[in-house]
Known about the structure:
Layout (H helix, E strand, L loop, with lengths): L4 E2 L6 E2 L74 H10 L3 E5 L2 E2 L1 H13 L4 E5 L2 E2 L6 H6 L5 E5 L4 H13 L6 E3 L7 H11 L7 E3 L7 H13 L4 E3 L16 E4 L2 H11 L5 E9 L1 H21 L7 E8 L4 H7 L15 E4 L2 H5 L8 E9 L3 E3 L3 E2 L11 E5 L4 E5 L5 E10 L16 E2 L2
Parallel strand pairs: 3-5, 4-6, 5-7, 7-8, 8-9, 9-10, 16-18, 17-21
Antiparallel strand pairs: 1-2, 11-12, 12-20, 13-15, 14-19, 15-20, 18-19
Helix pairs in contact: 1-2, 4-5, 5-6
Amino acid sequence: RASSHLSPDRHSFSGNNDGSVMSLPADPAADPGIIPPDSGFNVTQVHAPSSFDSGVPESQPTPMSTDEPETVKSADPDAMQGIDKPAAPELDLIAAEMAKPSASFADRVVTHDELVSVAAALPQNNCEALIFKSCAFSPNIDPLLEGLKSSKLRVLRMDTCDLRNEGVAVLAKFVATNPPLQELSLIKNGITNDGGMALVAALATNTSLTALCLLDNAITEEVAYPLRQAELARPALKIRMDPPFGIQYLDMTRYLQCRELGPAERASLIQTLNDPLCRYFSVQQLTNPRQQAEFAFGREYLLLQQLMRGVRLEAGEKILYRAIEPKDFLEVAENGIDVRKERGGRYGRGLYFATSPAGALVYFACDQPMVVLRCRVLVGHSRAAQRADISLFHEPAGFDSIFGPMRTEDGYVVYSNNRVLVEHAIVAELPQANAPKDLPPSALPMSTR
Length: 449
């Protein structure tokens, strides 16, 4: 691409096609090699020699005839059959680009012959990074596959290339061979669940890929979950997806660990729940250093508030439960529970917790598995609710949380994200027949302040 470079003199700037700066004097008359703009000279008459010239010296120009202009005859294709045609300039440029350690192509239509040239150069050259940006492939990227399999590529980026599922299926075959490729970027390629599942299958036999970027595609939670499971199974692999399936700040997904408990550990934990009303299927232990750090800060800040109030210092840590739908699990595992997404309840816009799994699942008593979060919650000094107040969005003055009747049992409400740490995700269901009865209408009057 041609680039322009502005010199300190606004009237003296230019740029070469190779990006280098060509300094020109501000006054064209000062340089005999520059044609003044008012000279009447037609720049289209200048012939710029190129690498494709025949090498035969040009004949001297003949004076312009005053006779009728000679009719220009088109070349006879039959007469040119015996003439050796020069190599296609585009293929020469591609060969020169592929000789570089990092080859890049942008904003162009890559034809079949050009892609064959790229594939043929990959095994022969030391190219370690191949980048296509905003390119279109005519008719497809199939010719690239054989070259990729025998290449030494470490980085392959094909962003905004409209690959769709068909093109991704070709790349998935390449990834499944476990090449030395470490980074694969497929941003904004119209990839849906079919293409995502092709990548999931490829990752099952791949151990070298460390970065896979799938931003700005159309992958839903049905495929985002197995992709995330593939990432969690390999600590070295990092997959970037669109929210809510991927983290977009601090890249803390790398440090999230999700481990399913074995039969003995699961049985021991379920026994501590002491809730026979639910049916339990699996238990996963979550370890998120960022959430742990925020929880530690929340504890210190809670104690500081109590110190400023002049009351007894008490974090009041309790094990409490909260139920969510399976589709929300990935977001909670990575980012924690967010009070900003709450719709509000009897005690305003806060984070509501039950004292038993059944008390949390009663809101989803639909005979199908849900996810029960087993959390450590800092309740501090709780105020026993004397009335329901739907307008609350922070703790009552002088207290750290609210304790009061919920739907089927008493529960707690806190109003800060850093007061909660999710430790276990329990897949369980509460059969409709076992659902506890709703508490009788509370004597607590409603209040909107």
